[in-house]
Amino acid sequence: MKTKKYDVVIVGAGPGGAIAAKTLDNSGLSVCLIDAKPRENIGEKVCGDAIEKEIFDFLHEKLNLDYPNKEVKNKVKGIKIFSPDKKTIFKIETKNKGYLLDRLKFGQHLLRQIKKATLMDNTLFVDFFDEGVVVERKINNKTEIEKIKCKIVVDASGFNAIVRTKTADNIFFEKNIDKKDISMCYREIREQDFEDQDYCHIYMTNEFSHGGYVWEFPEGKHLNVGLGVLYPSIPKMLYDKYLDFKGEEFKNSKIIKSGGGVVPTRRPIDSLVAMHNKIGVMFVGDAACQVNPIHGGGIARAMRAGYLAGTAIKKIYKQNKNLSKISLTNLWEYNSKYMKNQGKNIAVLDLFRIFLQSLSDDQINFGMGIGLIKEKDLINLSNTGEIKLNIVEKISRLAKGISDLNTTKKFIYTLEKIKKIKKLYEEYPNQEGFLDWKKSIEKIYIDLKKNML
Ligand SMILES: Cc1cc2nc3c(=O)[nH]c(=O)nc-3n(C[C@H](O)[C@H](O)[C@H](O)COP(=O)(O)OP(=O)(O)OC[C@H]3O[C@@H](n4cnc5c(N)ncnc54)[C@H](O)[C@@H]3O)c2cc1C
């Protein structure tokens, strides 16, 4: 059996893994980026394809990453969110533009910008061994098992998080995600006119997407249309029902692509780092549940996490010349940096997601219609991790919500819990305080779920 040796192995060359590799380009470290797919298919994924331009400004500044150009199918001004009865529309403009990406071309665009890491395509992570990872490579129709010695493994393998599931049992995170915390999706790209090319449309409707939403995103001549649902609903069955609702013309339009996918819609796993024997493990992107729990957007978040993980690795090696052994303490900085900012942001959105999922269509119509929930709440939650209501606004909303006291009480209760969780994430602990912190987080969830019944 062949054995190779690298400082870092990154599993998965999607947006998270690719940016981690790009970040390590100028580090002097040897990096191996593996992906199960053949090189020419890396990037392809069932997706809504929507992303804010902001992340490209960030990565251009930090890594000199080229902006996507021919990989962009359409540019939009923002999102329109429709209440189930369509009487209320929240229009959320993006600060810059929003892009609709061709995911395959975009994946290839990212790969082209990685200069130093070795890409091993057709290569599947199988398991750990005591000094690194075991992979299965397909070469000329033959399958070979190889070992790669390394000190750090980055799990950027997407929702299935294959490395996470193989990491030694530990107190830091759940290996498997609760089915209530995922959205199961079905998506098609259709040759279909869409009159509103400037906005992505999101339809809140339990009728077609129990616990999720239906989306229609304009991609020029094509429409990216799909829905996400809570387990155990079957997305394709609900999608067929949606097609009936849309009518014959829509139903008969040409399907360019179709398929299913899964998105984690919960707070990030509680620790983004762990040790597997002597090997340091870091989690990035969907493998770490770093997705916006309300709309399922994870491309930008995976890239930002890839950058932060790569930066943390560089720092570890810079501060410890001739590093012989990795420790959890070395890795923890990625945890602290991520959790105090992006992690906090995802956690507050997660609590709001649980609140939204507890509402019926009538309650959502009511909440959006009377202004109990406002579009600025969603913007503030995403940007600042908080919905701050001064006393006048609180009274005004309570007064508006008087005819549906149950929904109003749930809303106010959720805001209280959001405030608490925000503070806890801002005080993300070191290893010693971790278990107490985790217990406090879990208690917030237990209390919230009880009050959403
Ligand atoms: C239906 C749907 C719609 C979505 N819509 C949007 C949207 O509009 N906007 C948005 O921002 N996000 C959206 N997302 C989420 C987004 O696709 C993900 O958050 C993003 O792709 C995560 O990037 P990643 O790098 O973590 O993982 P991925 O993009 O999933 O990449 C993981 C990579 O790991 C490789 N891999 C997996 N297992 C192994 C293994 N054992 N060995 C080696 N390699 C392996 C895979 O081949 C893949 O290349 C959507 C997701 C779905 C399912």
Automatic annotation (TrEMBL):
GO BP: any one term: phospholipid biosynthetic process
PANTHER family recorded: DIGERANYLGERANYLGLYCEROPHOSPHOLIPID REDUCTASE (PTHR42685:SF18), GERANYLGERANYL DIPHOSPHATE REDUCTASE (PTHR42685)
Organism of provenance: Huberarchaeum crystalense
Protein name: Uncharacterized protein
Keywords on record: FAD, Flavoprotein, Lipid biosynthesis, Lipid metabolism, Oxidoreductase, Phospholipid biosynthesis, Phospholipid metabolism
Domain Digeranylgeranylglycerophospholipid reductase catalytic: 181-263
Key word Cell membrane present: no
GO MF term list: oxidoreductase activity, acting on the CH-CH group of donors, NAD or NADP as acceptor
Key word Oxidoreductase present: yes
Domain FAD/NAD(P)-binding: 6-80
